[in-house]
Write a structure and sequence with these properties.
Number of strands: 10
CATH architecture of the largest domain: Alpha-Beta Barrel
Number of domains: 2
Distance between the termini: 15 Å
Helix content: 40-55%
Structural class: alpha/beta
Radius of gyration: 19 Å
CATH topology of the largest domain: TIM Barrel
Bound molecules: zinc ion
CATH superfamily of the largest domain: Glycoside hydrolase/deacetylase
Number of helices: 11
Largest sheet: 5 strands, parallel
Length: 300
């Protein structure tokens, strides 16, 4: 089982209620340490190939490069001795915030009516947190598949129209913080520069996104990354076998998707499925893991 996380905020976030905050994350990691053999991702994939993977093997991954990965998640993982891989979106580290968080942080600050009709993103009555969550979901799902530059520029317009702050907050790690994570012994993987939907890009641009993120990680950590995560990650919707070949040719030894399942010996090494254990209760967490494992065997 390869688990996916994104941000791990110190406190519960009412706009992103299913994101595990520090206390929930710590509890999930304690269960994982108790019930699973948590391995570094590259070792687990090698042993899956060799047939020497222990039962209940698990890997922990984080996508995008949020600053709270270093400040909140890393100390919890260190305390429990758990390895993890952090997939970095280079452009997000450079800009300090991802396009989707510009929307979230804008709507978080907006009060009352937010009129985005003139730019094609509807009219929003932000009367309470439920309405904020609904608006975030609607705007992000519409923006996600827009061309890269348009996606970012619209997100910036939404932020400046909705928020009272002049500048968006920095939510992502700095380059120094990524390096710090590496020095702490964690694995750093690549996740493109601009977080594009690779299937929406011309082939040369997709290849450049993959290779430039590899080069950035190499320069920050001092060694080429072994692992890559596809942005958005749905096979044949967000990436396809051509992108798997590009990742292999770029020198990576494995890549992860967001297809919801656990990996088996028949899984492609360049399209490994993952699961996001966001249930907050112990029972739901383990039932979901069990269900995922069962389904991956049934589906073989
Ligand atoms: Zn991502």
């Amino acid at each position: 089982m390869i688990l996916t996380f994104h941000q791990v905020p110190g406190e519960s976030d009412p706009i992103q209620k299913d994101v595990p905050h520090a206390a929930i994350f710590a509890r999930q990691m304690e269960w994982l340490a108790e019930f699973c053999t948590v391995l570094p991702l590259s070792e687990a994939v090698k042993r899956l190939r060799e047939g020497t993977l222990p039962s209940s093997a698990a890997c922990i991954t984080f996508d995008d490069g949020y600053a709270d990965n270093l400040t909140v998640a890393a100390p919890i993982l260190k305390e429990l001795g758990l390895p993890a891989t952090f997939f970095i979106t280079v452009g997000a580290v450079e800009q300090g915030i991802m396009w989707n968080d510009l929307v979230i942080e804008g709507i978080r600050q907006a009060r009352g009516d937010l009129d985005l009709k003139d730019i094609g993103y509807g009219h929003h009555r932000l009367v309470d947190e439920a309405a904020q969550r609904d608006s975030v979901r609607r705007v992000i799902s519409q923006l996600k598949y827009q061309p890269l530059e348009e996606r970012l520029s619209i997100a910036k317009r939404i932020f400046s129209r909705a928020a009272s702050d002049e500048a968006p907050p920095r939510l992502m790690m700095t380059e120094e913080q990524v390096s710090e994570l590496c020095v702490l012994g964690f694995d750093i993987g690549a996740h493109t520069v601009n977080h594009p939907i690779l299937m929406e890009l011309p082939q040369d641009d997709a290849r450049r996104e993959i290779e430039a993120s590899r080069d950035w990680v190499t320069s920050v950590t001092g060694r080429p990354p072994e692992s890559f995560a596809y942005p958005n990650g749905r096979p044949n919707t967000d990436f396809n076998s051509e992108h798997e070949s590009m990742v292999r040719e770029a020198g990576f030894s494995l890549a992860v998707s967001t297809r919801w399942s656990s990996a088996t010996s028949t899984s492609s090494q360049f399209s490994l499925p993952r699961i996001a254990p966001w249930e907050q209760q112990r029972l739901g967490f383990w039932l979901r893991l069990a269900k995922t494992t069962a389904r991956s065997y049934v589906g073989r």
